[in-house]
Amino acid sequence: MTDEARRYSEAEVDSILRRVIARDDRAEGMSRAEIADVLAQLGIGEGELDDAIAEHDDDQRVEAETAAWRVKQQAALRKTAISMGAFGALFIVLNVLTSPGSWWFVWPLGAWAFALARQALNLYQGPSEAQLASVRAREARRAERASRKAERAERKARKRARQEAIGQAREELEEAVTAGVTGLLKGIQKGLRGAAGDDAVAASAAPRRGVRIAPTAEREAAPVEALDVEDDLEVLRRRVAEKGASRPK
What confidence tier does 210 reach under pLDDT thresholds 50, 70, 90? Predict the structure, then answer.
């Protein structure tokens, strides 16, 4: 049985709360509302909770930046060690082959070893605020480049879609114009054919016309429709001859 009057330190409270949350299988973590409810029972307001959450987020950001910085420094340290080993072996071989009595290879290797030691010490001590600021600036530039790249890709996609839409609309317009012109030409051709047929029918149905002469005894015997142009001319010559014969001399 636990002692109700026992007082727990801040570290003990933190450890106990972590153990309780870890043993609670009903949920993963706690929401802000749940934390605020628990703190309200302890007499702690939401303003202090918001400040604590902001500090926690800042700490998380610094930890992430520090981890990224350590990864970069470890890669640089590993690269320096590999270069030192490769060039150190080359310098030793050259020293032995060219001037075995003077061991000059220790000087470049010593400078290299000093730079390697400084990198290792910097990695051990951790990043300074200026180095973290450099990491933030580098991450911001990387994010900005990624954003600009995404914007360029989006603009290219919109331009490509617009060009495809314009091309499709142009093709549809050309097809519509072609179909309309074809239909119009067919209609005109059909109308011309109909008009030519009507003219042919009218020409075949209309009687032939010639010079009409006043009816005589001979013309009265034959119907007007049966006379053609030559008959009219013959009758005209005959009448002219008769008039000339009957004129007094």
Answer: very low
Whole domain around residue 226: which residue ranges?
217-246
- Is residue 205 very low, low, confident or very high in pLDDT (cuts 50, 70, 90)? low
76 three-state secondary structure? helix
Q: CA-CA distance, 119 to 125, in Å (whole number)?
A: 10
In the structure encoding, which two tokens stand for residue 221, read together?
A: 């015997």
Give the separation between CA 138 and CA 71, rounded to whole angstroms: 14
Distance, CA of 32 to CA of 53 (rounded, Å): 9
Q: Report the distance separating Cα 208 and Cα 197, nearest Å.
A: 19
**Inside any domain, residue 242:** yes
Tokens of 142: 């990387």
Inter-CA distances, 228 with 161, 203, 224, 233, Å = 78, 16, 9, 9
Q: Which are the contacts of 228, defined by CB distance < 8 A and separation ≥ 6?
A: 208, 210
Q: Please give the biggest Cα pair distance in the chain.
A: 176
Element (H, E) at 140: helix 129-205
pTM of the model: 0.44
Whether 241 maps to a domain, the answer reads yes
Q: Return the structure tokens found at 63.
A: 């930890």
The chain-wide mean pLDDT, for the chain, equals: 77
Q: Number of structural domains, the chain?
A: 1
pLDDT at 228 over 60: no
Q: Is residue 222 situated within a structural domain?
A: yes
Encoding tokens for residue 146?
């990624």
**Tokens 């060039």 correspond to what residue?**
87
